[in-house]
Amino acid sequence: MKLYKPLALLLGCTALVSCEDKLDITNPNQQTTGTFGYTSQDLEECVIAAYNHIRMEGTYARVGYNIDVCRGDEVWNSSQVWYLPFDDLNVSVTDEICMWPWRDWYYTINVCNFITYRTGDDNSVLNEQMRRIKGQALFLRALSYFNLTAYYQCPTLITDYNAYSTLDGLYATNNTYDEVLDQVEADFKEAMELLPSRNEGGQWAQGRATSGAAAGYYARVLMQRHKYSEALTVLKSIINGQYGQYRLMANYGDNFREGPKYENNDESLFEVQFLDYGSQGTDDEWTPVNTSPNATQGHAIESNFGPGDCGGWADLSATPWLYELFKSERTTSGSLDPRLYWTIGTYEPEWEGFEFGNVCYTLPITADAPFVTNNNNGGLPIAKWTNLRTGMYDKVVTGLHCGINLRLMRYSDVLLRAAECENEVNGPTDQAIAWINEVRSRAGLANLKKANFPTADALFEQIANVERPKEFGCEYGRGLDLIRWGFFYDADRLQQIKEHNTFRRTNDKTRVKESVSYAEIGVDPEVKSSYDSYQEGHEFLPIYQGTLNDNPNLHGNSANESTSNRSYFESNGWKVRPVVK
């Protein structure tokens, strides 16, 4: 017995020490910013949270994506409700929907600021995992602010997580458009240095931001500020493989299908990840504060685009101008541009035997029985980001259910942007034409010839109003292009996009493909152009009045005041290229 007393005493002391240690253990269910984020595992969870936030209602799951789509001149609001003020560019400061992108992008920024706070300023001390963590946070923060400037012009710039600890930090004032974009440039540039290329990242890079994604977006923001020479250097580096190997997919349609065979493919620089159809949960999560374990984790773009007869909400339609643009040029073999098939859901005799044929969600389309988007107002159905042409099912399951990843940047965008920058810097050159022809060749179109474009104005017209709308029609980004090109600040260009966005509201399905003339407005009550309602300054969204009321340090932007941005555009020395017929 005496032999056991010391052991018993030791065990007793050990028990006391253990109890004392347990008092200092952090409850994993009650973590705070004071105890969380000091390990790579914690920060990996933060990165996942940041990626999740770009799949919210106000970011890319629905409204945040569609606002820019209908801001473009190749799409109109066929439901005449919900997105109508965004389509007409006259949204009210009291419209709560226009606040949702502001709300959701700042959720993303908050998480990214926490990551950069924990990873510090000295990148030389970071191991490879931490470099990737910080690089992704910088990319997603830059993406957030890029979208905030694209919509709200002069948002509040917060990059220091400590700023949230004071009321002055929380209730900060606006920053200028240039101040925010300076930070966006810096973040994308740093992310380019921290992140691996898609080749170096291997399986890790599937679905994540890479140095190629950061470089592509860095070029985009440079072009938004007319820094064409700098952007051209970056775009050439991407083309030359400095940030990984990219190529055009042989089949254009492979960019708009779901599944591992098609998503995160060789053409994709960055895309938003959504779970495939049938593998999701059942609960739609529309805001960042929902935490359902059964969340659907899909997007609702398909619901907005889908025709009413197929269960869709029938909100957005392609314009007759875009349809006629596709029809105006045939391939070298005499067939239609295959991009039309994947962009607009119309009946064409040439589609018999092509892909899934003349179908709309597996339902047959015939010449006598075409589909329109909205049963009351007509409209050419948009096929992109939907399963209208994939043969997967016969009707839309509305809500956040579509599993097609949104490809936010494709290699074709790199090529056409490089051609645009080359034209801006050096005029029409063989190299600019070659980059354009690489994209056209995939569609089977004849090569352009430099001799047909004697001036930079002529080649710009081809890029802006032929090549880009046919390659990217009904995708996010056209609204941003119209702003950077200054089309709202020139009478001829404004008139041009008014003509592009002229459409007929009719429930007569036989008239769905009709070419519509802007001259018919005021004569035919069914004919309208969205831009006729445009108010100066409303190429941006107003900052929501409720947000201004909550933060007295904030002030409105050009949309709040209905003031023109022409003077800002011209004061930078930027020119609007004249219309070339």
Summarize the structure.
This protein has 581 residues and is mainly α. It has 23 helices and nine strands. Strands 1-3-6 form a three-stranded antiparallel beta sheet.
Describe this entry's structure for a reader.
It contains 23 helices and nine strands. It is mainly alpha-helical and 581 residues long. It has helices spanning 4-22, 40-53, 57-61, 63-71, 84-87, 100-119, 128-152, 167-170, 177-194, 198-201, 211-224, 228-239, 301-305, 320-327, 338-343, 411-426, 430-442, 456-472, 478-484, 491-500, 545-550, 558-561, 566-571; strands at 75-77, 268-272, 316-318, 359-360, 363-364, 380-381, 406-410, 502-504, 527-529. A hairpin with a 2-residue loop joins strand 4 (359-360) and strand 5. 48% of the residues are buried. 42% of the residues lie in helices and 5% in strands.
Question: What would the keywords be for this entry?
Answer:
581 residues; mainly alpha; three-stranded antiparallel beta sheet; 5% strand; globular; disordered N terminus
Query: Widest sheet: strand order?
Result: 1-3-6
Distance between the termini: 106 Å
Low-pLDDT stretches are: 1-20
Shape: globular
- Report the portion of residues in β strands: under 5%
The helix/strand class is: mainly alpha
Task: State the helical fraction.
Answer: 40-55%
**Number of DSSP E strands:** 9
Mean pLDDT: 94
Biggest sheet descriptor: 3 strands, antiparallel
> What is the count of DSSP helices, taking H or I runs of 4+ residues?
23
CA radius of gyration is: 26 Å
